[in-house]
């Protein structure tokens, strides 16, 4: 796959990415477990077919000590017994929040109530922001034609 344009070298996209990174820092500082955040990033990226972000977040999760089996099962989390109920609730929010155009009404009340059993209001806000920011990153990468496979752990630190 060829880049349509380089997101980091293009002045306009680089400026936008800096703002997205700044927005994403709020979720990094939240009390949502880092493992859950990474699972959400991966699932959103899978749904959006963002090879670059899927590659990046799987590699970062492995580097942080996440179990490879769990990462292999993120796309089929409903049928896998390796995720906690809280992680399942976050993954459901991620899916419904990413597939807003495909779902009748976006996030269902049931999905929100289930997530609220596991996360407080601040954490729910952080998850909402994480899902929104990740969708924006995915869309920029997909539009730019940014391929997956070459990401190196810590590349953007």
Automatic annotation (TrEMBL):
Source domain of life: Bacteria
Gene3D superfamilies attached to this UniProt entry: AhpD-like
Pfam short name (any one): CMD
A GO MF term: peroxiredoxin activity
Listed InterPro entries: AhpD-like, AhpD_core, CMD-like
Domain Carboxymuconolactone decarboxylase-like, residue spans: 18-95
The protein, known as: Alkylhydroperoxidase AhpD family core domain
């Amino acid at each position: 796959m060829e880049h349509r344009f380089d997101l980091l070298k293009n002045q306009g996209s680089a400026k936008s990415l800096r703002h997205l990174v700044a927005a994403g820092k709020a979720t990094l500082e939240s009390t949502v477990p880092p493992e859950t955040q990474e699972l959400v990033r991966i699932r959103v990226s899978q749904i959006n077919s963002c090879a670059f972000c899927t590659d990046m977040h799987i590699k970062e999760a492995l580097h942080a000590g996440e179990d490879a089996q769990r990462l292999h099962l993120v796309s089929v989390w409903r049928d896998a017994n390796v995720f906690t109920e809280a992680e399942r609730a976050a993954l459901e929010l991620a899916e419904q929040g990413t597939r807003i155009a495909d779902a009748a009404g976006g996030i269902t009340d049931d999905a929100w109530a289930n997530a609220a059993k596991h996360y407080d209001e601040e954490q729910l806000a952080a998850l909402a922001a994480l899902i929104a920011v990740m969708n924006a990153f995915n869309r920029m990468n997909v539009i730019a034609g940014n391929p997956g496979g070459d990401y190196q752990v810590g590349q953007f630190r």
